[in-house]
Write a structure and sequence with these properties.
Length: 753
């Protein structure tokens, strides 16, 4: 405890000899520790910023402003607790004790105090100063008809009623700690996933059942402790053992826990956490409690609560041990940083015995049955048809499957996870989950491969599970890992070609050969950007191809490249000039000389716009042929007029301004793309991802041009195994694009007008 702060000019209480001298001098004035004249105060310093005062008057309990030395600039917070009295006070005056919170650095010597309470001012002078807290509260209890612990309780209650701020809790901790007696130790403790804390030890005055406690760790908290008692022979009958659960709002850190304060009939008692405490792992707590249950006294509700705690998750699968037809299985589970987890599985509950299904991890929980989407699983019905009559016959239940997105809470990454099935009879059963960690696209792609397409493309599945998962997921920006100059590479140029590569090396080799055969490209510096993982395996292959064709190529390996556009974003920084041609390796020129026409259109505009050609499918139908913002179905949308039409539809078309262009093939300023923030990481494919970047460039003043007479062919991957994945990517990206841009598109239309 800090030393008492002495106030200059305040008279200390007379000691015993002084009082005897006063009596011998026939001084009939009774010098009371707490002045009862209604104008004077007894005070003591709790710390440098906190002062306790006591007196009598007509004040009311609560928090009030108070003025020191009649100076309005020295207004402080005053928390008053009105006490009981024995009726000896004159008039309506009652004793009170108050806490003054002084501002840090207040350079003033307190002499007078005016408490402003309910429109009235109550002036007091500082008359006596107590030696310490114990003597202060001892004198207060003499005036009030309350024992010292009751006086402290009254003051603490008013403090808490005025708001449990850190300052108030610190003051409360000092008050309670200063008057609590040592009463045993906490020897074993641990935290449950549900947030409560297990405590075991011995004490003299701790009650069986539930009581309110103060918990002191890094800060003081208010909690409830429910305990059962058992015999501790090692204390010689002077104390009992206790085992119980501590519940504190927001939880408590067992590593920083120092003591708990328990209020007994005689006052406050402090149960200290032993310096050699044992902190049990969360999975060991249920079995430890089970071993102790036979020793616990049935008094209070502590034993019943601990019996329920002993049935919590201890790492074992217990659903299969149930005596009712309830089973659960997880077919797929994956966790993506900050996006949460995706689960696909089944719950067999033909007789509707389950009340709640909870996902638990790292002390957090999420109710799954209120957010999942059901799906048919006849295979589950067949596998367990002998468990219940409701699983056989024409009316057998089939919708056992579920799909659910579990959002991350407070940015916490899930670690150990499990399901808790709460039955309607109050019992719980558990199933551990092997929750793998993955990046966004691999996790989603693997999940979709095992789903029925009729489920994967349902609107509610897309909106409730896939879209939130994709939009919340965070991926690091692509960054250059290594660069290799495959032959002579110029350090400056007017124009450079930046090609984003995928994992199809043969397609990349075809594109490089076409570049070598085009006179306008043969001497152009080319940056090949590819993911680091794929590039490391193909460096020598690229070196041979580039050496054979005699191209000026810089190979850039990129970390965190999810697709060709990510690779282009990182690779652009290694280009020898600001004007670059973005080209996906999936796009091939239909004829040589295409770049000269695009570059001429780019140079013809001073504002350095995005310039793109027509993109065709392999069957010569139009994949991209201009995009405009138009009103449809009551909202603005980005529309393509010529999508799917034959290429001859565009014969005679001229260069025109459009709302956006794709980045599969376009010319732009590298610095403009960087200033716009590069490509968004919240898309699975490249189509909407490129349009998103083009619209953000448009917002910053960079327009888009379409050159119809230049044609490129987009080579499609026609593998049937990828059809469902491509369809899902297109659907999710379109919804993500519309959700973000629908409110913004009207602004772009107005700006154009």
């Amino acid at each position: 405890m800090e030393p008492v702060v002495t106030l200059e000019g305040v008279q200390k209480l007379p000691n015993t000899r002084q009082r005897q001298n006063a009596a011998s001098n026939n001084d009939r004035t009774d010098i009371s520790a707490v002045p009862v004249d209604g104008h004077s105060l007894l005070c003591v310093g709790l710390d440098r910023e906190t002062l306790l005062v006591a007196g009598v008057g007509n004040v009311f309990s609560g928090g009030w402003p108070a003025v020191l030395n009649d100076d309005p600039k020295a207004t402080v917070s005053c928390t008053v607790a009105v006490l009981q009295h024995d009726g000896r006070m004159k008039g309506n005056k009652t004793p009170f004790v108050a806490v003054l919170s002084l501002p840090v650095g207040l350079d003033i010597r307190p002499e007078r105090l005016t408490i402003r309470c309910q429109g009235h001012s109550h002036p007091y002078g500082f008359k006596y100063q107590a030696d310490d807290l114990k003597s202060f509260f001892g004198k207060v209890s003499e005036v009030a008809s309350q024992a010292e612990p009751d006086v402290i309780d009254s003051l603490v209650q008013v403090l808490l009623n005025c708001g449990a701020t850190p300052e108030v809790m610190d003051t409360t901790a000092r008050l309670v700690d200063g008057f609590s007696g040592r009463d045993g130790f906490v020897e074993i403790l641990g935290s449950f996933d549900e947030g409560d804390t297990y405590l075991q030890g011995w004490a003299k005055a701790i009650p069986a059942g539930t009581c309110r406690v103060f918990v002191l760790g890094d800060r003081l908290q208010i909690g409830a402790f429910t305990s059962g008692l058992f015999e501790r022979k090692d204390t010689g009958g002077k104390a009992v053992g206790f085992s119980g659960l501590l519940t504190v709002e927001g939880g408590t850190d067992v590593q920083s826990l120092r003591k708990i304060f328990v209020r007994s009939r005689a006052g406050w008692n402090a149960v200290h956490v032993h310096e050699r405490k044992s902190v049990l792992p969360v999975r060991a707590l249920p079995s430890h409690i089970r071993s102790l249950l036979p020793k616990l006294s049935p008094a209070g509700d502590g034993r019943a609560l601990l019996e329920e705690a002993s049935k919590r998750f201890d790492g074992r699968e217990t659903v299969s041990e149930l005596d009712v037809p309830v089973r659960v299985g997880i077919d797929f589970s994956a966790c993506v940083d900050r996006a949460g987890a995706l689960l696909s599985g089944w719950l067999l509950d033909p007789e509707e015995r389950v009340d709640t299904v909870l996902f638990r991890s790292d002390g957090k929980s999420c109710r799954l049955d209120a957010r999942w989407t059901n799906q048919r699983r006849p295979d589950v019905t067949s596998a367990f048809e002998t468990l219940s009559p409701f699983l056989t016959g024409p009316d057998a239940k089939q919708r056992h499957g579920f799909l659910v997105h579990v959002p991350a809470q407070d940015g916490v990454v899930f670690k150990e996870a499990y399901l808790e099935l709460v039955l309607k009879d109050g019992r719980s059963a558990f199933a551990p989950i092997a929750l793998g960690r993955a990046s966004l696209k691999p996790a989603l792609r693997r999940l979709v491969s095992g789903l029925d397409p009729s489920t994967a493309f349902r609107p509610d599945v897309l909106e409730r599970h896939f879209l939130p998962f994709v939009q919340v997921a965070e991926a690091p920006d692509p960054a250059v890992s290594q660069t290799y100059d495959l032959g002579p590479f110029p350090e400056s140029a007017v124009l450079a070609l930046v090609i984003g590569l995928d994992d199809d090396f043969e397609r990349s080799r075809v594109l490089l050969s076409l570049c070598a055969l085009d006179p306008s490209l043969k001497d152009l510096p080319i940056v090949l950007a590819i993911s680091d993982e794929m590039g490391q395996e193909q460096i020598e292959d690229f070196r041979r191809v580039v050496g054979f064709f005699g191209l000026a190529v810089r190979l850039v390996l990129v970390n965190h490249a999810g697709d060709a556009l990510d690779a282009i974003q990182a690779g652009a920084s290694e280009a020898p000039c600001d004007t670059i041609v973005c080209l996906s390796s999936a796009v091939l020129p239909r004829a040589p000389g295409w770049l000269e026409t695009l570059h001429s259109a780019f140079q013809a505009h001073d504002e350095a716009p995005l310039v793109a050609p027509t993109i065709l499918y392999e069957d010569d139908t139009i994949r991209w042929g201009g995009a405009w913002i138009e009103m449809e179905d009551g909202r603005h949308q980005v529309k393509q007029h010529y999508l799917g039409y034959p290429r001859r539809t565009l014969l005679g078309a001229e260069t025109t301004k459009v709302a956006a262009v794709p980045f599969d093939c376009c010319i732009l300023s590298r610095s403009a793309l960087a200033e716009a923030g590069g490509f968004s990481r919240n898309y699975l494919g490249t189509d909407e991802k490129g349009l998103d970047a083009a619209l953000r460039l448009k917002l910053s003043g960079v327009g888009s041009l379409w050159v119809p007479q230049v044609e490129m062919i987009h080579a499609d991957d026609g593998a049937p195994a990828n059809a469902n994945w491509k369809k899902l990517v297109a659907e999710i990206d379109r919804r993500s694009f519309d959700r973000f841009w629908s409110p913004v598109l009207p602004e772009l239309v107005e700006a154009r007008a």
